Hints:
Layout: H1 2-13, H2 17-30, H3 34-54, H4 60-76, H5 79-84, H6 86-100, H7 108-117, H8 128-151, H9 157-177, H10 185-192, H11 198-211, H12 229-249, H13 253-262, H14 269-289, H15 294-317, H16 329-343, H17 347-356, H18 365-378, H19 382-385, E1 393-394, H20 397-407, E2 417-422, E3 432-436, E4 441-445, H21 446-450, H22 453-468, E5 474-476, H23 480-488, E6 515-517, H24 518-525, H25 534-542, H26 562-582
Parallel strand pairs: 1-4, 2-5, 5-6
Antiparallel strand pairs: 2-3, 3-4
Helix pairs in contact: 1-2, 1-3, 2-3, 2-4, 3-4, 3-6, 3-7, 4-7, 6-7, 6-8, 7-9, 8-9, 9-11, 10-11, 10-12, 11-12, 12-13, 12-14, 13-14, 14-15, 14-16, 15-16, 16-17, 20-22, 24-26, 25-26
Domain 3'-5' exonuclease: 393-582
InterPro entries: 3'-5'_exonuclease_dom, Exonuclease_MUT-7-like
Protein name: 3'-5' exonuclease
Amino acid sequence: MSNSTNLYSFAKEETDVAKLQVATEKLQLGCTCESGALALSLVFGALSLLQTHYENIDNLGLDAKAAASAMSSTTSRNKPLRHSGRHISIAVLRSYLIHATHTDLLSLQILNHFAKAFKLGGDDSIEDDISAGAIRHAMRHVEKSNDNILMDEEVDNNQLNLMKRRISGAFALACQLQPWTILSPETLVEAAIPLELWHAAEDICISAHKASPESLLPQNPSHETIYSQELQKYNAQKSVERLIDAAIEDRMYRRADALATSLYDAGGRSRYVEARFNHACETISKVIYRRQIPIVDKQIERIDKAVAKVQQDESKYGSAAQPSIPTDPSQEIRKYAIEKLEQAGDITSAKRLASVFGLDYVYDERAILLAAAMRRRRYLQFDDVLPGAVPSLVTTPQELKYVFSRLREEPLRHGPFGFDAEWDEETQGAAVLQLANAKMAVLIDVPALLGTEDGVKAMKSTVGTLFNCTDSVVAGFACRQDLQRLRASPSKVREYPERAESHHRHPWLCGTRAVVDVQSLVGTKEPKLFKAGLSRVCQHYFGKPLDKAEQCSLWSGRPLSEHQQAYAALDAWVCVAIYQKVNE
């Protein structure tokens, strides 16, 4: 009793993490009493305060987290201590969480370790409204700052990392305590996506799915403050779908495929074929470019298996909507592969592929031209909206300055402008930046220009100036990932040790005050188009969708095909055209 009493007093005043950990380890060796559980609970509280207080000072915040993790692991294996101290730990954790609903002094990361130590959560040990209150308080600061931090690269990296740590603690606590009768997991997933906390978002989906009852989904769920069992299950599935949709929107097809696979039974089935189809198209484009033709067969086989799996499960469990896939994915992936082989001039491989899959194949140029003409009539085309030849890639500083002088000629000097970016998932940064006004489009070879100091200077004086000016609008569509890719693009720049490091993270992109996300404007004006993709919005305003076949192309390869260049230029033009439509 004396040891635990001493630790009780010690924990209330001690600020040295190492001493707290040593004292706790001594107590845990033989303590199984309620007072020991109380002392441990207070130590977790002290560590929670320490991490928040010292998280930006040296490694003290990390030390507190490591100590809490070690304590949690040890305590969770001490069954007598956990059982005898359960009601004490519940009372103390409840008290901490109540305080956390109106203060930032307590670290939710540490409180999560506390909950795990005594295996609290997933039952009625902590009321959901208390847990949800603490989590919402932590998220409130993130929601208030998210857009500013992600749109303005001048924000210090430490501030962004601090925000990620804090909200990660809230996410981890939500997964542990599972307050899903009060809190929608989709709300947490939406907060995780802009911060690229993909693993945390996946954990949230898993936690919500495990906690949801085995019941049928409602056809028209109501928006209730306290969610019914049916609505909990619905929310869990919608969080999975939103997570996978976000990965697809960000053109992270491999990640989307992996998420749809790992979360298949939690709601991923409705996105499984779409995610795999996009991933297969991306892979096929790349391996054909690299002449790794045998991999094409494997990708087609993966699509066949995915379609068969979903069809078999639909016969057992009912249909799950597949939002954006061809009516016959197996047939479409074969056509896509053959078309890409033809574009690459590999007619032999195209014939072999058709033979392997039992398709009649004759290289008929007239038939190919006819199919292309039908496709042109179905989708919006570059020459439908912009006169002249498809723009070529700008690769030198001189070319960039010249095309920019044309792009910003009167009367369109102040725009509005549209922008988009293309990249390959496994490479760093952007491969192509597209800019457009109502009359012309420009395609910029980002790696080529950022590969020289003169190119960096030219990018800063043109693109950098445009993106940060206050008297113009540069419209993107769901452009968070585009901006992040542009900022992540490697650049050749001199080092200036006398300047702060934070000013050199993006030496050519000094701000994004001119950037406007058109997707949010469209969602406000046309609620039925909330979170709709660019192709669907294009169809709404211009009568035809965009042909997204080239989206999965290899964008880091050179030279780009004319199809790629037309696709890229059209995307930028559509952004500015939609902005003008919304503001008419």
